[in-house]
Amino acid sequence: MSTLPTFSRLFAFTSVASTILACASLALAQNSRELPASHLSQTHPRFAVVQPRGHRIPGVQGNSNGIPGIDSLTNWNGSFKTPGFDPNGKPKNSWVYNMVGNPPERGGTTSINGPVVPVALDLLNPDGTVFLHYDPKPFILPTLESPIFQSSTFSSSPLPTQITDAIQRAEFWSTMAADWHTMLLGSLKQERTMQVPSGYYYYALKNDGACCLYVLVDGDEFGNLLFPATPTDTTTPIGAAENAGDITTKDVSTFLFPNTYLYFNGNPNDCCVLGFHSYDFEPGDSGNGNRERRYVVAYAAWISPGLFGNAFVDVTGLGHEIAETFNDPFVVSDNKHNLTPWWLSPNGNCQDDLEVGDVIEGLPHATYPIKMNGMTYHPQNVALLPYFEFQSPSTAIDGAYSYPDESTLPALSPIELPGCPAS
Questions:
Q1: Is the Cβ–Cβ distance between 394 and 409 less than 8 Å?
Q2: Within 13 Å of residue 306, how many CA atoms lie on the same side as its CB?
Q3: Kind of pairing between the strands at 275-282 and 53-54
Q4: Fewer CB in 10 Å around end: N or C, the chain?
Q5: CA 219 to mean position of chain CA atoms
Q6: Which helix (H) or strand (E) holds 320?
Q7: Strand pairing partners for 279?
Q8: Using alpha carbons only, what angle is made at residue 198 by residues 197 and 202, rounded to the nearest 5 degrees?
Q9: Which residue intervals of 328-383 are DSSP H helices?
């Protein structure tokens, strides 16, 4: 971050005209980052797979319920067999997946804490002062009252439940015990602030000139600003929340941003990522058996109506990321768990991982409107495990490959080589 020059006493008394010119130049520099309200209509909304970040030291490793050697949330492993290819193009028949909660055959309810950390933005001038402040408060209550954290009616559960639990039950319809549930206990935590240096953001103002209709942040810089630089770092939202005890290794933690999306390659047209899930890993100590600590986190932006048309609204991004977190909490970080045969979605995504939201993003009827608590929410429909298993017929609810809207994904992907070269 650059600073403005310090002038000697000789130049302490500048003319009024010079002062006005300097202020105008600064305003012009900031206005060069201002975008029209319609800019997002020309971009491609999407989601990202973000590798975990953190810090490790050698230590004696213990065991967890699912993946060994970690201190993290309750998780379990499963497997399936189907022909496919690994990332290097070698034939592979056996696949292992890891999910949040407990095995469906075990039954019972697993409750996972779901802290929500609102994040405000300070958009900085070149001298480090605050140019604009973007407040997340208007979006906190609607998020906590959404079907991500509150119960609604779904065909996969005899009683009202949360949408992610309903998805999991639909996914394991043929093998689950009737009373199996995985519930997210939402709670509001202290608001944090991300300070975005000059040159790493664009913005659009509301019609009344207030901040902001939306903000775009450089994707690479965003990761540096979100994750802690050291285990004791309290200057980043994740680091501050960890060190304050607002989030723990046993949680699925949401960092909620106000209409804040990511661009890449320094180009605001190379946009827009609306969310991702990952984890921050930190060294263990004697208090936890020297196991690596994994804080499972999701970045998600509230999406105000009209920014991306009707396809992405309110909690579409959050629903996408929480569903993927439940199905793939550690984002294929060990190149073992949650790799799948290569699949090609009708939306053009070609991947080899258990990212259930990526299959459906952008397709017709990608969202599932739910009326509750005085508004209509738009969480995303997602693909179910039998889609990745190339099962025919599907063992999910009603033989479906997607849920809650079972018609969104009517057929399997063709069997693909790495990178889907035929596409």
A1: no
A2: 5
A3: parallel
A4: C
A5: 13
A6: helix 316-327
A7: 296
A8: 105
A9: none
In tens, the pLDDT along 108-161 reads 999 999 999 999 999 999 999 999 999 999 999 999 999 999 999 999 999 999
DSSP 357: T
Q: Which residue has the tokens 């259930």?
A: 356
Residue 290 neighbours by CB distance under 10 Å: 17
- Separation of alpha carbons 347 and 423, rounded Å: 12
What is the per-residue pLDDT for 25?
36
Residue indicated by tokens 């509230």: 302
Alpha-carbon distance of 367 to 380, in angstroms, equals 4
Tell me the sheet residues that pair with 295.
280
User: Which pLDDT belongs to residue 423?
Assistant: 64
329-to-41, 333, 334 alpha-carbon distances in Å: 31, 10, 12
Distances (CA, A) of 273 to 112, 147, 218: 26, 22, 10
Hey, what amino acid is at 267?
N
* DSSP-assigned letter for residue 397: G
pLDDT < 50 positions in the chain: 1-29, 58-64
